[in-house]
């Protein structure tokens, strides 16, 4: 019976990993094709290409070196401080010199509502009734506004961007601690370098939206989850379980799809119930406390929504989940105004949800199997191809306000020319980001192969999480790479984890397998 269960485990593992591998290879292919488009547009500099290749080879070489030569303990935190400090200073510099007004999509809508709510009329008054998913963003903006008012300053895009920069930096540190707790300092450093290249240099810091604001509570939830299963201290385990529930709710309210990691943990937890029962009641009690944290967090947020004085919410007007399914089955899955108008034209919430779902069914059925495969391939390519996370595409020409206030001075104007979508040097940022993106997907593909050589529960959980992220992007509204920002922490953990479990050349395979088995048993 045990042997049959082991065979079934490997069959399921190979199928799941293979499915994720198909998505990852397609993403890599799409990224390479997009690089070709940049070349066709004469937006590629040979010197910058050579420089980026050298940088990426050096980072890769450092990762290989750390596998064979452990990092001295006294070097770890100074190195992290230098790398993380440099990334934070860069993002603060962007925030202070390039943050400008955003027009035409949700960050501007929330900002405009908060700044001018007394004079807004018509559908503006119902914005948060239509989009309750942006209520937590409103509360965050309002908190920043209150703090800035204490210092005699009005709410500004610069202030929000500064908060965003510190949130991104904090998320990186939490991911570093998570990998260090799971595996080793070396694995943590490898993951942290990947994080800095993917998120630490991005100009998305000047767009204060849920795509980046969700990273901090998500990273905190991941850290609490690892602490929950990795400590034998009862009080620590209970606190971690409760905080896991709270941070998961914050992540959900900020970006519902961000909790894919929690959904992916369910089958792993169920498979581990028997071993946990042998270990006593503590693990089950901690899981119960995590559920309590979820309940308290969700109930608390609903209570805040009911009593907050900022805006009146009409629950019957909320956009249903089926709306995003409907959008996700048209074109490349991007937002389109005609679908939004259709949803809002139906006043009854049950009829609204049913109508959107019916249209989704019709669109899928009209494609047929072959048509849907072609549609899915095009949609996933559009969703995963751009290393800038589709910088400048949301809202079209209104992504950043060309006429909005901006900093003057030589440094500010130079950085703006590299960062603004309409800047004269934006092609250099696009080129550098695209090379990093191609390199990243190549590493993910290699890591998926490496994940087949271990039975660690943490690796299996991350593979299922990656599959969940792809399925979400394939089914719901997507079509732009910015939708992948929220999943970057999971990819960083996955790459760092697989790097940690791969044996070095000097290890015997049998010895490596035994060491992995002992570590897995200790973790369980």
TrEMBL record:
Keyword DNA-binding in the entry? The reply is no
* Transmembrane is among the record's keywords: yes
What residue intervals traverse the membrane?
7-28, 48-68, 75-96, 157-177, 189-206, 212-229, 236-252, 435-453, 459-476, 483-502
Q: Which UniProt keywords are present, listed alphabetically?
A: Membrane, Transmembrane, Transmembrane helix
Which top-level group of life is the source organism from?
Bacteria
Protein name, entry field: Glycosyltransferase RgtA/B/C/D-like domain-containing protein
The organism named in the record is: Schleiferilactobacillus shenzhenensis LY-73
Q: What is the lineage of its organism?
A: Bacteria, Bacillati, Bacillota, Bacilli, Lactobacillales
């Amino acid at each position: 019976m045990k042997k049959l269960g082991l065979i079934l485990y490997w069959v399921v593992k190979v199928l799941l990993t293979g499915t994720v591998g198909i998505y990852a290879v397609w993403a890599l292919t799409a990224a390479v094709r997009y690089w070709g488009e940049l070349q066709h547009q004469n937006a590629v500099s040979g010197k910058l290409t050579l420089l980026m290749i050298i940088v990426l080879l050096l980072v890769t070489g450092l990762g290989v070196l750390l596998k064979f030569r452990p990092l001295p303990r006294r070097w770890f935190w100074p190195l992290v401080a230098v790398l993380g400090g440099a990334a934070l200073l860069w993002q603060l510099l962007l925030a202070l010199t390039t943050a400008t007004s955003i027009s035409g999509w949700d960050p501007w809508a929330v900002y405009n509502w908060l700044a001018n709510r007394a004079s807004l009329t018509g559908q503006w008054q119902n914005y948060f009734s239509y989009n309750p998913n942006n209520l937590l963003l409103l509360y965050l903006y309002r908190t920043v506004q209150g703090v800035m008012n204490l210092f005699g300053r009005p709410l500004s895009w610069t202030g929000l961007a500064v908060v965003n920069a510190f949130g991104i930096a904090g998320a990186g540190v939490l991911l570093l601690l998570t990998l260090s707790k799971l595996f080793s300092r070396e694995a943590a450093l490898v993951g942290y370098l990947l994080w800095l290249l993917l998120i630490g240099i991005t100009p998305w810091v000047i767009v204060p939206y849920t795509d980046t604001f969700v990273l901090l509570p998500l990273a905190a939830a991941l850290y609490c989850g690892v602490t929950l299963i990795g400590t034998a201290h009862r009080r620590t385990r209970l606190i971690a379980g409760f905080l896991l529930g709270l941070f998961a709710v914050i992540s959900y309210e900020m970006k519902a799809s961000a909790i894919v990691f929690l959904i992916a943990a369910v089958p792993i937890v169920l498979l581990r119930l028997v071993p946990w029962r042998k270990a006593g009641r503590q693990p089950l009690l901690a899981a119960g406390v995590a559920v309590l944290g979820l309940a308290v967090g969700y109930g608390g947020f609903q209570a805040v929504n009911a009593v907050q004085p900022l805006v009146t919410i009409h629950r019957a007007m909320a956009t249903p989940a089926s709306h995003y399914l409907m959008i996700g089955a048209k074109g490349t899955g991007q937002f389109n105004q005609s679908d939004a108008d259709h949803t809002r034209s139906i006043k009854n919430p049950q009829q609204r949800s049913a109508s959107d779902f019916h249209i989704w069914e019709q669109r899928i059925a009209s494609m047929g199997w072959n048509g849907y495969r072609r549609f899915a391939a095009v949609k996933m390519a559009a969703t995963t191809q751009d290393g800038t996370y589709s910088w400048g595409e949301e809202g079209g020409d209104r992504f950043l306000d060309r006429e909005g206030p901006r900093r003057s001075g030589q440094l500010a104007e130079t950085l703006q020319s590299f960062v603004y979508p309409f800047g004269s040097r934006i092609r250099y940022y696009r080129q550098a980001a695209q090379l990093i993106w191609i390199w990243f997907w190549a590493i993910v593909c290699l890591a998926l192969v490496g994940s087949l050589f271990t039975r660690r529960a943490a690796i299996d959980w991350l593979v299922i999480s990656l599959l969940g992220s792809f399925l979400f992007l394939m089914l719901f509204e997507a079509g732009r790479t910015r939708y992948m920002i929220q999943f970057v922490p999971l990819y960083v953990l996955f790459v760092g984890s697989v790097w940690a479990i791969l044996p070095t050349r000097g290890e015997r395979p049998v010895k490596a397998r035994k060491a992995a088995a002992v570590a897995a048993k200790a973790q369980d």
